[in-house]
Structures are given as structure tokens and as C-alpha cells.
Amino acid sequence: MTNKVRVRFAPSPTGGLHLGGVRTVLFNYLFAKKHGGDFILRIEDTDQTRFVPGAEEYILNCLKWCGLNPDEGTEAGGEYGPYRQSERKDIYKKFADQLVSEGKAYYAFDTPEELEEKRAEIPNFQYGHAFRHQLRNSLTLSKDEVHRLLDEGTPYVIRINMPSDETISFTDLIRGFVSFDTMLVDDKVLLKADGMPTYHLAVVVDDFLMKITHAFRGEEWLPSAPVHLMLWKFLGWEDAMPQWAHLPLILKPDGNGKLSKRDGARLGFPVYAMNWADPSNGEVTPGFREMGFLPEAFINLLAMLGWNDGTDQEIFSIDELIEKFSLERVNHSGAKFDFEKAKWFNAEWIKKVKAEHLRDEVARVLSTNNIEVADSGKLLQIIDLVKDRCTLLTDFVSQAGYFFQGPASYDLDAVKPKWNDQKEGFFFEFITELEKLEAFEAVELEALFKKLVADKGLKIGDVMLPLRIMLVGGKFGPAVFDIASLVGKEETVSRIQKALVAFK
Ligand code: GLU
Predict the structure, then answer these.
(1) Residue 325 — pLDDT band, cuts 50, 70, 90?
(2) Rounded mean pLDDT, 347-373
(3) Domain 261-352 - what CATH class?
(4) Among 34, 211, 258, 261, which one carries the catalytic annotation?
(5) Ligand 1 mean position, distance from CA 479 (Å)
(6) What is the pTM (predicted TM-score) of this model?
(7) Which CATH number fits domain 89-191: 3.40.50.2000, 3.90.800.10, 3.40.190.10, 1.10.1740.10?
């Protein structure tokens, strides 16, 4: 019998959620759903110096927005909790002590100052096999001395006793065979002076206790793998070790290194899933959501950063991704981030989804721009009319806002040079005719307009653009009679009247 697939996303809640983090969530989620498994959210908050208020809640909100909800975790609960590492302190201590008693780890009493001195004295100093015998730890001090120090409450850390002469290896699901020479790995701290585990100990203990079968994480964690492999071995859990996949990095647009928050600021695009307000200084780093991305598009574009299904297909729904996703098709090399392409995905998704699906978000975007929508039926019609012209949800402000508010200004350069009394007269008559109309449908409006144009001996091109500019302010928007019909008779007449004054 094979074990049920159990994967985890294990963020440290220290700030905004980078798109690379969301892609890690996505690949975990897709893999779990594809194999009928569980997706677990574990909060790795054992580094108390990096605690950031609100960061955990923010991560949960990002996952909710993306629709990548955990089956188990801090909020969803589950039988392997607690899912917040700071609440599991005693569990880790027990295993750290076990490792010490078996000689696989040791107490180190060196003060930060002593270690500083060593670093100054020895170039490229590493606390490991080469120097551990010159330092103050339970490998160099007598048993009595160690007991005395512990009894006196001397601060200590527990370090792994890394062998110096082994080669350890594993098969990464993306990268294949990977091996490490333990000689090059230092004696990482497992338990800190405050009694909290480090990431290295906690990740291994929790992946074991939570019965994780597959662990996918960013490539930046690959250098930590030898420590983790050794811990799985030292704790006697080798047979239960999850299969690892280290996901390729998301690179800067020019391919030169990992995409960072600073690149986003420099190049004017978001790198976080949602806006993140740093509680220490209030500084807001923009997110894809607030920038006007649909979660479906965000998920889709992240899936394509490093994966494809082997065909030219680029637009995938989450259900299709679940069906088609496989780690074999994840690239080995990093994926360059291209914001123009990201926007293309969003435009495609805005076209693809129904107006109903966009309604609430569009109403919210309009409302943040002081445009309140009273008639949501009308909003649906408007969305249908303009959605193919919108790349970002925020584009609905310029593409749909004029249905609710008359233009604040006009593109006069496009009208004035050719404006004359004849055209003005035409519009006065057009108003009179409009007043007489019962129904205010686009087809009738167009017929009326064209008839009047012919009667007046004008050309349609002479008055069509001015009418558009009267209604929306500029040379944009869908069919002009659709706009007039939707804004209604009274408003159309009033906009023409106002514009006639401005065009004089
Ligand atoms: N806590 C680590 C992080 O913040 C998790 C790495 C892992 O998944 O093992 O990314």
C-alpha cells in the first residue's frame, strides 16, 4: 500500500509573499490534488528575532485569494497539529537531547563574542570538523565541566556533529541525483540558546511527524539538504524521508539572478501576491491583486513559470492544471519573469471569464476610485461591453467609469479644429430628436443619427467622433450607440449639452 500523498508549504512569516513562494504553494497544491492527497500549511516561526506581526494572517489571505486553500494547517486544523512551530517547542527539544545523548549532536557554550574572535582570527571560519576541537563544547570539555555549565544555566546551543568523511546523496524529483561531501558542511545549530529549534531541526522533525511524503521548496534551500539528510539518518527515519523537489528560481527579466522585491520596485511591477504593508514603517509593497490581476490569471502565469504540458497551450484553469501537472515537466533551469507576458495572461482571463465573475471586483475597483455602482445589472452589461479592452482590472476605471460619470475633460484637439456651426446645429437637432424617443436602444439611436446626418448633408465621419468625445471624453470605448443606450436618455442629452458649451 502506498502512503497517501501529503505535501506542505512551510513559510516563515516574515513579510510579503513573493511570487516564487506562491508558485511553490501552487506546485504543492497541484501535486496533492492530482494524487488525491493533502496540502498542509505549516508556519515556520521559530526565529523570534524575525517575528513580524500580521505576516501569518497575510499569508493565509494570499492563499485564500489564490484559491489554494490548505487541507490542514493553522486555520484548517487537522490531526498533526499544532501547525505553528512556535507552539511545538517541547517536541524539538526532546529530539535534540536524543541526538546529544547518542553523540550525533553536542552542546556548544561559545559566546557570540568568542565566535566573533574566531571569525576575525581564521579566514572563512566554519564551526565544523576542522575547528570544533578548538572551541568550548561538549566534545572538548570534560563531562563534569559540561554538567557544571548546564547546572549553572550557562547559555548553550546544540549543534549537529557532522561527519567529515561521508558522501550523502538523494534523488531530487526535478534535478535527479544530487550528492554532497559532508566535509564541506558545518555543524549547524539545531537548538538555539532560547530553546527554540532552528529551521533545520524543526523542518526534519515536522516533516517526519506530519508524515510528509513529498517536500517541494525553492532551489535556494538545496545547500541545506545535506544537513537535513544527515538529520533524517541520525534520527533513524531515513525510510520515511519525503521525496524532495527543489524548484527552479524565478529570475529577473534579463535572466541575471533571482527576482527580488527591489527588482519589482525598480522595474515597476509587483513581486508579492497581495499588497504588503510593513508594520515597522508602514511602507506598502504592491501586490498582483491590487495591481488588478485575477487570481486565475496569477495562478496560470505562475504555473507557466517553469512548467508546460509539452504543447503550445498557455491558458489553463486550475482544474486543467491539476489534471496535467507533472514534476517531470518542470524545467531544471530558472524561469525569467516577464511582466508584459503576465499582463497578457490577465487580459486573456478577463476575456475568458463571465461578467458575473468580474462584477464584485470591478465594483470594488470603481468604488476605490469614487465611482459607486447602484445598478449591478447595468454593471454586468457594461463589463460585457468593455472587458475585451481591459488588461488589468484597474483598466475598468477608464474603460467603464464613464458609464457612471460624465467626462471631466474632453480631447478638444480631436474636435476643435474641425468644429463649425453646422455640426453644432446638427447636435442641437439630434437632442430634440432624442427627447422624442421612447425606447433608447442602440439600434434605434444609430438609425436616427444616420438619418439626421443624411438630412443635413453631412458625412457620418464628421459627427461620429465628436459624439464619442461628448459621451466619454476621448477617442476610446466600445460602439458609441451602445454607450449612449447604457447611460440612458437623460444623461446622453445632458452630456451632449455640456460638451456643446465646451466645444465653443
Ligand atoms: N521555512 C522555509 C521558508 O521560509 C521553508 C523551506 C522548506 O520548505 O523546507 O521558505
Answers:
(1) very high
(2) 96
(3) mainly alpha
(4) 261
(5) 52
(6) 0.93
(7) 3.90.800.10
